[in-house]
Design goal:
Length: about 250
């Protein structure tokens, strides 16, 4: 793959599906990539050849920079805005409903929607470079769509802290202390080894037992199809505000 070409790709080996996404702009996610990612996760969940899923991004630096600013700038009406933000809702809901455990592999910084995706994994490991930031308030919107996933994993206090402190990257160790990351490694090589070992270990367990456990882990989120859609509508409305329009102009 060329380093300018966006993609979502999946490799299945020894009952482990590794799903990888990439975008040259720090792995930011436009609508077409979000849709493809949601569908790939759903398909892997339905594939009888797959017991465990690893979710990762390409490149060695940023895990995910969140929403595509190029698309944000071009939103002209509330319905288009809702559709765009529903992209993240659809990925999170695909992860939530997936009957297989999803292991997150976070190699670097993650921002906004990327924090939501990391939070929606069932077990998440990272490097020491994987600082997190919820930057949405900084551009005049808020982490409405990803908020429920982040709050479920970090708790309301930590989620509200990083949502309000929208300019600050919180270090990987902080994210580990709050429950987002299970382990933090010095290098990407150590991270990859640990992720692979953990995935292989999960493959030795009863798939039916893991499926039932996943249901229990996500109990109380049954309304998220509706909830995240409503949240996407809020973001879609706010992205049209004068404040946000003026702010986004600076990113052109």
């Amino acid at each position: 793959m060329s380093q300018t070409e966006t993609y979502v790709k999946q490799q299945i080996r020894n009952e482990i599906a590794t799903i990888e996404f990439f975008h040259p702009a720090h792995n930011s996610l436009p609508g077409n990539i979000l849709a493809e990612l949601a569908q790939t996760i759903t398909d892997a969940g339905n594939n009888k050849e797959v017991k465990v899923i690893i979710l990762k991004s390409g490149g060695n630096r940023t895990f995910c920079a969140g929403a595509s600013f190029k698309e944000l700038i071009n939103i002209q009406d509330a319905e288009t805005g809702k559709v765009f933000f529903s992209g993240f809702a659809n990925v999170i809901n695909a992860m939530r409903k997936c009957p297989k455990f999803i292991i997150g592999r976070i190699q670097g910084k993650t921002v906004g929607g990327g924090v939501g995706i990391a939070s929606a994994t069932d077990y998440c490991m990272a490097t020491k470079f994987a600082a997190i930031k919820l930057s949405e308030l900084n551009v005049g919107i808020g982490p409405f769509v990803v908020g429920p996933a982040v709050e479920r994993k970090l708790g309301l206090s930590a989620m509200s802290q990083i949502a309000m402190d929208a300019n600050t990257f919180y270090p990987a160790e902080w994210a580990k202390q709050k429950g987002l990351y299970t382990q933090v490694f010095e290098t990407v090589e150590e991270l990859d080894e640990a992720v692979q070992t953990f995935a292989e270990n999960l493959c030795t367990y009863n798939p039916e037992a893991m499926k039932e456990m996943k249901k229990i882990f996500w109990k109380g989120t049954e309304d998220w199809d509706t909830l995240l859609s409503e949240r996407a509508a809020i973001s879609g409305r706010l992205v049209l505000s004068d404040f946000t329009k003026e702010t986004l102009k600076r990113f052109k």
